[in-house]
Design brief:
single chain, alpha+beta, 5-stranded antiparallel β-sheet, two-stranded antiparallel ribbon, 9 helices, 16% strand, globular, binds adenine
């Protein structure tokens, strides 16, 4: 389109949706539960200053072959003008249990529930990270799916489905190899609390997609730790680095904690159950200071499948 709008934007979609209740507020804007053709949908309403996030998220959701049970299902995007004010909407499936962050605050988990959450989240990240080649030699229109780095993995950006599995949401910062090629040093970044050591000490190659995948794996390890802590004997739900970092910590403070002190959330080595001990050692590998030690999503998935298969009690 001449205006440079993403292809999938439907200017009439918002007219068919009625907003019912606000279910979330943040720096990005708001999330509402709405009704669309008798179905509950989630409507993310972006602040107009954050049009870049809306545009990127719309673009990423429009990627062919992105649909997956562990990726939030996209319905459409809409840009409308209301009293000469631009409104940016992103409409997806609605999940009444809300984010993993809210879910963990509400309930403790059995090992089985913990495993369903961890496996499905890793499965979603694996799909995102995977480059699916098109059938290159058969037809010029056949397409694959590019590898995508999320860049803002955290428990607030993961949703819990009623079947106990999770799906990954919030693609406002996501990047493919095409975006990474034009990455700028001062560009928008993810949540400071979940930033990897190489993001914090600014030693990573910002033009390398694999480097961003490793950052996702570090953040995933922090999420897995949050989930593990809710299995009996459960502690209260806490964000990673809750003792060292207040709400909305500075970049400098996080750099001191993660890079200088080399601190990580504590994992009791008193786990007697083999599944919990296996989870702990997996998490340690995935938040390693040296990003090349961190496991790829496929390896994490295989390890989790093995731990789940051996857990008979
Ligand atoms: N909070 C943010 N996104 C949501 C969604 N799709 N469903 C339910 N709660 C949400």
């Amino acid at each position: 389109s001449g205006s440079g709008l993403p292809l999938m934007v439907q200017r009439t979609l918002s007219k068919q949706v009625s907003l019912l209740e606000c279910v979330g507020k943040g720096r990005y804007g708001e999330v509402w539960r709405g009704l669309w053709c008798a179905d509950s949908v989630a409507v993310k309403i972006f602040f107009s200053r954050d049009e870049a996030s809306w545009r990127r998220e719309t673009e990423i959701y429009s990627t062919v072959l992105l649909r997956h049970t562990n990726i939030l299902a996209y319905i459409g995007s809409d840009m409308t003008s209301r009293n000469s004010c631009t409104q940016l909407w992103l409409i997806t499936h609605f999940h009444p249990l809300g984010s993993l962050y809210e879910h963990l605050a509400r309930t403790t988990l059995t090992r089985h529930q913990m495993m369903a959450i961890c496996l499905s989240t890793v499965n979603g990240l694996l799909h995102l990270h995977t480059d699916i080649h098109g059938t290159q030699y058969t037809h010029e229109t056949s397409q694959g799916k590019p590898a995508i780095a999320h860049r803002d993995i955290k428990s607030k950006n993961i949703l819990v489905k009623v079947n106990g599995e999770c799906c990954i949401a919030d693609f406002g910062l996501a990047m493919t190899a095409a975006h990474v090629a034009h990455a700028q040093p001062g560009a928008r970044q993810g949540t400071k609390r979940y930033m990897s050591p190489e993001l914090l000490d600014q030693t990573m190659n910002i033009h390398c997609l694999e480097a961003y995948r490793k950052c996702d794996i570090y953040a995933l390890a922090l999420v897995l730790w949050e989930v593990l802590a809710r299995v009996p004997p459960a502690r209260e739900a806490r964000p990673p680095f809750h003792a060292q970092a207040p709400a909305d910590p500075s970049f400098e403070l996080m750099r001191k904690i993660v890079c200088v002190d080399g601190a990580r959330p504590d994992l009791p080595d008193t786990f007697t159950h083999p599944t919990m001990a296996g989870m702990a050692s997996l998490i340690r590998e995935c938040w390693h200071q040296n990003s090349s030690v961190r496991l790829p999503a496929l390896r994490i998935k295989k390890t989790l499948l093995k731990l789940a298969a051996n857990d008979n009690s």
